[in-house]
Write a structure and sequence with these properties.
Blueprint: H1 4-22, E1 29-31, H2 32-39, H3 43-55, E2 59-64, E3 68-74, H4 76-89
Antiparallel strand pairs: 1-3, 2-3
Helix pairs in contact: 1-3
Length: 90
């Protein structure tokens, strides 16, 4: 089981990779397989991160059987959060 710090890191990584992959376009998404490949995150931790972020309204997830993300997209709120973080970094 991932620690709290690891879980938060996984969530941040999912948002960052998704935002960079879709360039802020909420009509585009990324497959769960691509997220796993890009992040090297255990499958159960990726599913937990996606479940959390979906619950926060930051992403939407189409699930495959076995609680595996098939397709993940940013919501409008997710894009806003990532743009705000980008502006803070300068």
């Amino acid at each position: 089981m991932a620690t709290l710090r690891e879980r938060k890191t996984y969530r941040d990584q999912v948002l960052r990779v998704l935002y960079e992959a879709v360039e802020g376009n909420r009509l585009l998404g990324i497959t769960g397989a691509q997220l796993r490949h890009d992040l090297h995150v255990p499958e159960q931790d990726l599913a937990a991160a996606c479940t959390y972020l979906a619950g926060e309204g930051l992403i939407t997830v189409d699930w495959e059987p076995g609680n595996t993300p098939a397709m993940v997209t940013l919501t409008h709120e997710g894009i806003r959060r990532m743009e705000a973080a980008e502006e803070e970094r300068g």
